[in-house]
Write a structure and sequence with these properties.
Blueprint lengths: L3 H10 L28 H29 L12 E5 L5 E5 H4 L5 E6 L29 H19 L4 E5 L3 H11 L6 E3 L5 H4 L13 E6 L5 E6 L21 H6 L34
């Protein structure tokens, strides 16, 4: 149940089974380890320690919210066993029922891909491949596409630990499958709701017909009934001035990486292609094992 980093922390702070708690919960001080880095000032250390205290409080709050999410009572029963369009063996079109998407488990996550994109989204579309000649309004959302890019590599780990995620678009399955091939997605399960009401029923398409990038999580109960467990309803709550929506929490690694930088999140959005790169890059040297 522990990742490499979590195992390191467990051994360092005495949190793994069979070890003693000698960290911050020992009753004498909040921090388990007092860090010092070369040439740092007392001003820096005081500010950093204050930030650590805030990070501890945030971690506790995140754990509390996660527990609150897990403890939600049963949601509404799914009204039908939706039939989705999918790409079968060799890319041949087929259909699959929602019940089959569970693959024998009790949890199903479904991310509503904005494909087609929002009509007001004027960012450039793909410049090559199957979507290059499709009208912009019928093409995929660059932000959703970037998110799936990030998830695709994580899927073997996610599924290996019991996760179950399916991406559902409204575009015809042939178009979705062709774009997935262009992107090189190998681990992402994609379906189309072009011929059912699933996305409308569960917030993926608004009353105005515009797509919404919502995540929905379903649970199959012991009696076989499938119910909604959670949806990222925060997408509909306006953030405070200067804040990002953050409706998917920490599952957007592109943006959470930027959260750790001095500049924070850039004032821009994901694109299909980038001129690459920010500033000049010295390609004369590469790290061992890295690709040129």
């Amino acid at each position: 149940m522990y990742s490499v980093d979590r195992r390191f922390l467990g051994f360092a702070l005495g949190l793994l089974p069979g070890t003693k708690d000698r960290g911050r919960n020992s009753g004498t001080k909040e921090f388990g380890v007092s860090m010092r880095f070369p040439n740092e000032t007392s001003e820096y250390r005081a500010a950093r320690d204050a930030l650590v205290a805030s990070e501890i409080a945030l971690r506790r709050q995140m754990e509390a919210v996660a527990a609150q999410l897990r403890a939600l009572p049963p949601g509404g029963e799914v009204p039908e066993d939706y039939v989705f369009d999918a790409a079968g063996t060799g890319g041949a079109p087929t259909v699959i029922r929602m019940s089959e998407l569970f693959r024998g488990g009790d949890t199903l996550m479904m991310y509503h891909y904005m494909f087609p994109r929002h009509s007001a989204d004027e960012r450039a579309g793909p410049t090559a491949g199957a979507m290059a000649t499709v009208p912009l309004a019928e093409g995929p959302c660059p932000s959703c596409t970037a998110l799936i890019d990030m998830w695709d590599g994580a899927m073997p780990h996610f599924e290996g630990l019991g996760g179950n995620l399916v991406v559902v678009a409204r575009a015809p399955i042939a178009r979705v499958a062709a774009f997935a091939r262009d992107k090189g997605w190998k681990h992402t399960r994609l379906v189309s709701a072009a011929n059912n009401t699933f996305r409308r029923d569960y917030g993926g398409d608004g009353a105005d017909g515009e797509p919404v990038p919502i995540m929905t999580v379903f649970r199959r109960w012991p009696d076989g009934v499938v119910r909604l467990h959670w949806a990222s309803e925060l997408i509909h709550e306006l953030p405070d001035p200067g804040q990002d929506p953050r409706h998917l929490g920490t599952v957007e690694p592109l943006w959470t990486l930027f959260d750790l930088t001095p500049g924070g999140r850039p004032a821009g959005d994901e694109q299909m292609d980038y001129p690459c790169c920010h500033g000049r890059r010295d390609n004369s040297r590469t790290l061992p094992g890295s690709a040129r």
